[in-house]
Amino acid sequence: MKKLIYISGIVSANLMLFGSMFKVQHWPGAGILLTLSVFMFCVIFLPFALWSSYKNSSPRKYSLLYVVTFIVFAVVFVGALFKVMHWPGAQFFLIIGVPLPFVLFLPVYLIQTRKEKNYSIVNFMGIMFGMVFIAVFSVLLALNVSWNMLKNFENQFHYNQNLVSNIYAEKGNFANNENVLQKSEELCKYIESVKNEILSASGNDRKEMLNSEIKLMDNTEIPSEKLFGKENIHVLDDLDKKIISFKETVLLSNLASNELKELTKSLFEISNNEEGIVNWEKKEFIDFKLIITLDALTRLESNVKFVENEFIAMNK
Fold first, then answer.
1. Mean pLDDT (whole number) for 170-196
2. Of the residues 83, 109, 142, the one at which a domain ends
3. Contact criterion met (CB below 8 Å) for 215 and 274
């Protein structure tokens, strides 16, 4: 049994280490490594280690404490796995896992060891430190961007994408070769190309995107690479120039009403103070997580198509 305990402990620790590293780097296989490590720890190492300790104790006592220890460790580790993997029920595990060491383990430990002659305050302090560490670790997991927040961005992304598709459908045939339409088409095609590159790199199917969950929603490496690392070309700089060009074209058009020009100014404003121009990236891209980046790009595209649609409607 000792060999099994040693092997399972070493393997689970290494799997957890490499799984954590893979997760931080957003490398494929992180979820598998973390899941295997927690499974091996909770199903093999922890129960066998506790049983071995109980079996070798003389006399055998504190059986309830061993059971409670297993429950607390299992709930905390499984809860951490659910939170890291963004699985349903993570919040439930977190709510239970944070207070569990204090409301379950600590009372049982104190009751079971209250008559122990060799009781040491050092052991008690070590246990308290471990429980505080577990509690702080669990709370730090909650400080990460909430999965519910990412789901809200995903819903908003789907809504804007559907809006863009509907506006495309309502455009129909417009004979006027006005520069506004040319600039709009050029800008939207560029935005679509950037989105397609991000979706493709993250393993999302462009055709099924509207009807399925976006993969790797919290990934930041892919958007950063596509927006900043494409052969030293700053994609957002090019996008910035195309937006300014589109806005100026609308403002200079004789076929655009004053109301549409004011609307265009408000939708594509890149300066908001008297001291100078504020980088529009900081306003539009509040975070470079994949779903937030896609939502920002789709929102820009929907604004462009909205202005284009209004321009077409007033010139029919």
1. 75
2. 142
3. no
Residue 277 is predicted with a pLDDT of: 44
**Higher confidence at residue 163 or residue 3?**
3
Q: Is 303 exposed, middle or buried (0-12, 13-18, 19+ CB in 10 A)?
A: buried
b (16+ CB within 10 A) / e for 91-111: eebbeebbebbeebbbebbee
Domain count, the chain: 2
**Residue written as tokens 């590293």?**
21
DSSP H or E run through 249: helix 235-252
CA 301 to chain centre: 23
What's the average model confidence in pLDDT over 245-249?
A: 89
Residues 150-170: what's their mean pLDDT?
Answer: 73
Amino acid at 243: I
pLDDT band at 274 (very low <50, low <70, confident <90, very high): very low
Residue 230 φ then ψ, to 5°: -85, 90
User: Is 189 in the same domain as 83?
Assistant: no
Residue where a domain terminates, one of 83, 116, 142: 142
Q: Tell me how far apart the alpha carbons of residues 202 and 196 are, in angstroms, rounded to a whole number.
A: 10
Q: Which residue's structure tokens are 């935005």?
A: 191
75 touches 96 (CB < 8 A): yes
Instruction: Tell me if 102 sits within 8 A of 135, measured CB to CB.
Output: yes
DSSP lists the bridge partners of residue 230 as 233
- Note the pLDDT of residue 132: 58
- In this structure, are 156 and 292 located in the same domain? yes
Which residue segment(s) compose the domain that 81 sits in? 2-142
Half-sphere exposure of 139 (CA within 13 A, CB side): 8
Q: What is the sign of the dihedral through the CA atoms of 85, 88, 90 and 93? A: negative
Residues 125 and 94 in one domain: yes
Alpha carbons 142 and 94: distance in angstroms, whole number: 8
CA-atom Rg of the chain in angstroms:
28
